[in-house]
Amino acid sequence: MVRCDLPERVHLFTAAGDLERDLPLFPDLVRVLEYWDAKRGSRAMPSRDDLDPPEMVEFLPRIMLADVERQPLRFRYRLCGTGICHVHPGNATRLAADELQPPAYGALVHAQYQDVLRTGRPALHLNVFDDQNRYRSYAHLILPLSRGGAAIDMIMTVDSEAQDQAKMMNLLAQLQRRAGTDFANFYLPPANRTT
User: Fold this and answer.
1) 122 preceded by cis ω (within 30°)?
2) What is the CATH number of the domain that holds 155?
3) Are 61 and 82 in contact (CB under 8 A)?
4) What digits encode the pLDDT tens for the residues 156-177?
5) In this structure, is residue 52 part of a structural domain?
């Protein structure tokens, strides 16, 4: 669990969720993981070619696909669903994860993808971004993809339907208690801020 106070009153908070314990709080992400698992079959992970957009209509607007570039290690967005644009202002297509703004946020997302690259396993994260003008919180499921079945060549993320809602705040409070930390009400947006 990490909280970063960035310059200009920007706050960033992240917590890794437990797939077995926390994912059921997001039934839409449970279905995404079930879809990914069915597509991989007996392999460690599916390939991009295994994914069929007509089968993914429910969560397609909340998908980001990022190619893994090895030298240097970067995760470059190939596809950003229309439901993602309010979290990442503008279209992030063709940007690398570490180019997301502010820079600390880009570094955080890059590190989350790097962890999935290292483990080869799906991961769940809760991210909160808060500045004077904008507040965003979302859970995202990060899933590895591989053409050859072993070396990860793409990362797929799917953001939760529940964003900036009471369900998200309840999960954040649970993760704080589990980690033994208390950031008080830092994550609750004042009434005059947009969500």
Assistant:
1) no
2) 3.30.450.20
3) yes
4) 999 988 765 566 666 667 776 7
5) yes
